[in-house]
Amino acid sequence: MHRFYDPALDIELIGSGRAFEETLFALPRQRLALDGGWGNTDIFAQPNLFLSHLHMDHALGLPRFVVNRQKMGDGSCRIFVPAAALDDARGIVAAWQRAERRRDPVEWVGVEDGLEVEYEGPWRLRFFSTDHNVPSAGVCLLRKQSRVRPEYADLSPKEIGRLVRDGAEPVETTWLPAFAWCGDTSASVFERHPWLYDVRILVTECTFIQAFHDEPGVTRGHTSWEDLCERAERFSNTALILSHFSRRYSAERIWEHLNQTSPDTLRQRLRPLISVPGSEDRGLG
Length: 285
Ligand SMILES: [Zn+2]
Ligand SMILES: [Zn+2]
Prior knowledge:
By secondary structure, this protein is of the alpha/beta class. Helix content is 23%, strand content 29%. It is built from nine helices and 14 strands. It has a seven-stranded mixed beta sheet. Bound molecules: zinc ion (2 copies).
């Protein structure tokens, strides 16, 4: 289990991801689970679940999530899933409910590329397409911000207050892309959505630390470390969190390889989610 915390945004990410094994994360302060892995109490504690896709190691916890929600708090249960996978997700839950003679209420939301929905507190969710070998999507949390319009930037707070009383609108609302989570995807997600380079906290996958040029099919629908290095100059995130490393590499090997080969621009923002004695969950920088 890994933990990352950004005090400025009040975003805490907990969870873990290893390719072909299990991937599940949660943002407890935003009451949102990101994939369900095999299911655990960190996931069941969140009333909202976003499933990036239905590969078993990401979604096996889905029926357990629905059942366990009924045992926790008010039992509310909202599930966001790529629209093209919605019927399958419903079918999985329906089969378990039938088998267990249960009728737990679920609010289903099928998400398409570009969909934005109002969320809790200062947050809005934006869903985006990703490139995997089954229907898939990512999610971005946008944080509401109020700022004085540039044309009023020189005014004092008192003068701004007077303008507001006079019916003017010197303050505007903007939405800061604060946190994005890509699920499983090839690196083409960055060409589709270049705004990901500027999200404050970006969590993406890095299944392979080498590219397998001789076997191009191996990395299809996944990202390699080489893909990220090729785009190194573009990333301006404050944190670039990597997960979903293949089990074919030990944590030590991943750490060593990233340490030895990381371009400087990546090094300062990189947070690989691997556990290596003495360097757990720290960046490389
Ligand atoms: Zn996966
Ligand atoms: Zn997958």
